[in-house]
Specification:
single chain; 411 residues; alpha/beta; Rossmann fold; six-stranded parallel beta sheet; globular
């Protein structure tokens, strides 16, 4: 008999759980998980498409597959369309942070005012929930915050250190400074939450520093689609191919990675950098021989890169949980990352991956050079990584999330 999904339907203390996010951040994924439960209320968002529509093909992250149409509530579509279209125009990075904040505040006010009744739960996401929680609390609703990344209180300090340590790359750190008013708003968001879902110990520690009572913070690691990200065809022995995927900014340690690659002096080797490039900053003058910028790639193309590269490198300095690392692991790629990736405590150093400090350029160079000469060791670590990734399926993530909510509702 097939295993049934976990539910919280046997709980009578609360009535309905409403999931709300103005963008795509994982709101759709959480809604799909909770939609299996009879206590699922509404899914509130801005732009969403029927799974069979043409637009759902162009915007798969906004597909309502698995979410009943009768449960959908939409608000502020025009604001989000400005955001979606703006992301494809030059100079977007100059004003996107301000527009996001405007969108988030307006959306949160609407959800907090219009959705749910006394005893219900509002499930919101970081930076878009403060206004929602303020109004929801006044109407007797409980509030759950999904904090996907290190809290701004900590992030601001770390980003300032990054800019000071390598000023030549500081221009890539888009949106690195929040106003005192916005920082206080995000503190209030944490204070208002009755439960905070965190993907890693780094995130949990950061919300505690921001003022969260430790008992309110619960670690629930994210999951990935293990049916999609799987080991692929045999890797060619030459050249030695190394992949980075993610936003191409110094927050992800790109500057240190390029310095390390240059120091290796590797020949017959490639460093492939896939991801969105920052507005107003040009990485090309910093590229060493053998390194290339691929820009944004499709999900299918990224999977192909995972499967055909020898190593995946991710020298991030500020993260919640880097799903790109898990995806690479699931595809059998040998991963080299940092303790700040949100995955570091899940890796057994030298067995299913390697963990290095992001700023230790010489150590990164030595490691890359060593891996280039040890293809069997790389293959062995990649196989171990694929096995370890099995603990991060979407089904397991859903079960962990439901368990956390069930524990919260039973109190």
């Amino acid at each position: 008999m097939a295993e049934q999904p976990k539910t919280i339907g046997n709980l009578n203390m609360m009535r309905r759980i409403h999931v709300a996010h103005p963008g795509t951040q994982r709101g759709f994924r959480v809604a799909r998980i909770l939609a299996k439960d009879r206590r699922f209320g509404f899914f509130c968002t801005t732009i969403a498409f029927h799974p069979s529509s043409i637009l759902a093909r162009f915007f798969p992250a906004r597909s309502l597959e698995g979410i009943p149409l009768a449960k959908l509530r939409r608000c502020g579509q025009w604001r989000e369309w400005v955001n979606v279209i703006g992301a494809r125009l030059p100079g977007y990075g100059i004003w996107k942070e301000r527009w996001w904040l405007s969108r988030n505040r307006a959306f949160g006010k609407w959800v907090g005012r219009e959705v749910g009744t006394q005893g219900d739960v509002l499930y919101g996401f970081d930076t878009s929930s403060c206004e929602m929680f303020i109004r929801g609390k006044k109407r007797g609703l409980k509030c759950v915050l999904d904090q996907s990344i290190v809290h701004t209180v900590v992030a601001e300090r770390v980003l300032a250190e990054m800019a000071g340590n390598r000023p030549q790359y500081a221009g890539s750190l888009e949106g690195r400074s929040c106003s005192a008013k916005e920082i206080e708003r995000r503190r209030e968001e944490v204070h208002l939450a009755d439960l905070i879902i965190c993907p890693s110990t780094q995130v949990r520690d950061s919300v505690i520093e921001a003022g969260c009572a430790p008992a309110k913070a619960k670690i629930v690691p994210f999951g990935i689609d293990l049916n999609y990200f799987t080991p692929g065809r045999k890797i060619a022995q030459a050249p030695f191919r190394v992949l980075f995927a993610g936003a191409v900014t110094q927050r992800k340690g790109i500057g240190y990675l390029l310095e390390a690659w240059r120091a290796t002096g590797l020949r017959d080797a490639e460093l492939l950098i896939a991801g969105d490039l920052p507005s107003g900053f040009d990485w090309k003058p910093h590229l060493p021989a053998g390194a290339s910028l691929l820009g944004r790639v499709s999900r299918e193309a990224l999977r192909d890169l995972y499967q055909t590269c020898h190593c995946f490198v991710f020298p991030t300095m500020l993260e919640g949980q880097a799903n790109v690392v898990l995806e690479a692991m699931a595809c059998g790629c040998c991963v080299v990352t940092t303790p700040d990736s949100g995955i570091g405590d899940r890796l057994r150093n030298g067995e299913n991956g390697l963990i290095l400090q992001p700023t230790h350029v010489e150590r990164w160079a030595e490691t890359l050079e060593s891996l280039s000469k040890d293809r069997k060791g790389v293959e062995k670590m990649g196989a171990a990584a694929a096995e370890s990734a099995r603990d991060f399926s979407l089904k397991i993530y859903g079960g962990r999330l439901v368990d956390a909510l069930k524990e919260f509702l039973e109190k």
